[in-house]
Amino acid sequence: MKNFTLRKTYHPYISPFDPCPPVREKTYYTPAQLYLGYQPQNLEQFSPKEALKAGTLWKVFYDPYYGPNEKRRGPYE
Amino acid sequence: MSNKQLPQEFYTMMEELQTLDFVLVELTLYLDTHPDDYNAITQFNEFSHARRILKNQFEEKFGPLQQFGNSYSDYPWNWNDPPWPWQI
Amino acid sequence: MWIYEKKLQYPVRVSECNPRLAKYLIEQYGGADGELAAALRYLNQRYTIPDKVIGLLTDIGTEEFAHLEMIATMIYKLTKDATPEMLKAAGIEDHYVNHDNALFYQNASGVPFTASYIQAKGDPITDLYEDIAAEEKARATYQWIIDMSDDPDLNDGLRFLREREIVHSQRFREAVEMLKEERDRKKIF
Ligand SMILES: [Fe+2]
Questions:
Q1: Do C5 and B29 touch (CB under 8 A)?
Q2: Which UniProt keywords apply (chain B) (predicted)?
Q3: Does A39 touch chain B if contact means CB atoms closer than 8 Å?
Q4: Which domain holds residue A55?
Q5: What is the ipTM of this complex?
Q6: I want to staple C169 with a disulfide (CB 3.0 to 4.6 A). Which of B28, B55, C21, C135 is the partner?
Q7: How many domains does chain A have?
Q8: Contact flag C11-B14 (C-beta cutoff 8 Å)
Q9: Are C53 and C179 within 8 A, CB to CB?
């Protein structure tokens, strides 16, 4: 399976004089294309129906993004 | 648009076509950078065949998907019949 | 030439009449990293790039037009039959007095589309790196639109579009590798 993570976090400096409530942990996104290199042949695929819903035929690229107010849905998580 | 309502079958068949075509889009981009992948080309040709059959079935029921002669026409000319993709 | 197909790439749905979300989405219609810019960028670069990656630029450029139509469909559905009061409440009355319900190639702040969004340097590696960056920027834009949206059906379509940027980025990275390859030497997988 995947030997990389799709999210990374960091902890920014927080000043006592920052007026907005601090977000102590920030997240950024590191999708599969940063790691895969030239795509190897015969990687595992979704079924056609799942592929359309996922937005990709190959499981390795699947990386659904949900907003802060959304419940994570998606049957392939 | 008129008051003509689309039957559920339209949505089902349309999504089947979108499904096959999505696999074909993915394989097309993949083969553009992997021209020697025999398995992928075999899969591509199988899906290409299946989409041709489904296209004909869809068009017999719901009219042409393409024009400039890529689809047949009924009489009268039915390419202009709604709904268009953003209306359905 | 191009042949139009009377079908969306993906079944687009939105949950409710919501002109405010349309205002955000216009960023991906006529913005710097939007689908129009993407389609025009890739198709335009084809004339000055080695033959072996022209097919890829043609196909991704063509898919981007399908994405443009999806965005237009979302905007159309979010604003169809919205009353002037609703448009006012959504803060897009300034769009309305100029364009009524018409779509316009502009970004979310109302800046009209310009060709300067589309780089074309004529150097194949430079142009492909531009394309990789463009895909990552479009991916990020979809993230920020999803963050602002509370429409589950709309977000379903936006997630599909974001995922496509991931795959496009992958293919452009592979195109760079194809151009780096030494002549007559086989690829090593
Ligand atoms: Fe793209």
A1: no
A2: Capsid protein, Virion
A3: yes
A4: 7-61
A5: 0.95
A6: C135
A7: 1
A8: yes
A9: yes
